[in-house]
Amino acid sequence: MTETSSQPPFRQQSQWVRSVGLMIFFSRWLQAPLYIGLIVAQVIYVVVFMVELGHLGEEVLHGFTHPGPDGIVIEEAKIMLGVLGLIDVVMIANLLIMVIIGGYETFVSKIHIDGHPDQPEWLSHVNANVLKVKLAMAIVGISSIHLLKTFIEVGDLAARGSTSTQGQESITGETYTWDGVLWQVIIHMVFIVSAIALAWIDRISQAAGHAAAPAASVVPLEPQPPAMVLPALRPTGTGTAAIEPGAAGHLLQLGRLRDAGVVSAAEFELKKTELLARI
């Protein structure tokens, strides 16, 4: 009796157990309203973007309609901050779309858009690890925009420990302190380190998966039967034509090649004629 036959067979699941499993499986649809809520949030960000764009247009229009003593003056720093604010809104919207599409595809249900010309490139290989890395990179980009806005707004910070208005220039009038800017830089560096760690973990998991796949796909080759060796025809000594041993060997080899499909029938007949002509 083998070891496999001695093991007791597994008992099939009862109807109750299967029902509980199906209920747990279908509970993933509870996340669908969450992604619909994120779509509503994206609509709100579209409205925010249009409002910010309108403010930026009003700033430029005011510079044209109310020229100063030196003519039309448009503060480049304010325009740059406005554009950075628009980019910030766009990057947050991109983060939302990645969470909506990638999260729904990964945790809820497949989106059947294979072959669609507008299918995002990253959606073809999305999984939980890839989604986390992309989200981390998006957060780093958003943090970079906020940090750049801070660097542009702050012209000259006061020395550490002094009052908040000493030696400080702010374009928008907001108050910035030395400690506040330092903490922004530290938080941004934490985001970068976290993104690098997630990417490194994803690379290690992919390398482990690629290393295990070839080992599992190795299939042992079945032993091949030994090739049949036919004796070469020898002269009979009766005065009839005899076939040379070398020609017989060539004919046998050509026959095997023809049977294997390496040599076509026409090529076999041509070489056969040449060999028979040498007899």
UniProtKB/TrEMBL annotation:
Any one Pfam family match given in the protein's UniProt record, by short name: UPF0114
Residue ranges crossing the lipid bilayer per the database entry: 32-51, 79-101, 181-201
Primary location class: membrane
A single Gene Ontology CC term: plasma membrane
Record membrane topology: Multi-pass membrane protein
Top-rank taxon: Bacteria
Key words, A-Z: Cell membrane, Membrane, Transmembrane, Transmembrane helix
Subcellular location: Cell membrane
Family label: Belongs to the UPF0114 family.
NCBIfam families found in the cross-reference section: HI0507 (TIGR00645)
Listed name of the protein: UPF0114 protein E3T48_02535
Species per Swiss-Prot/TrEMBL record: Cryobacterium fucosi
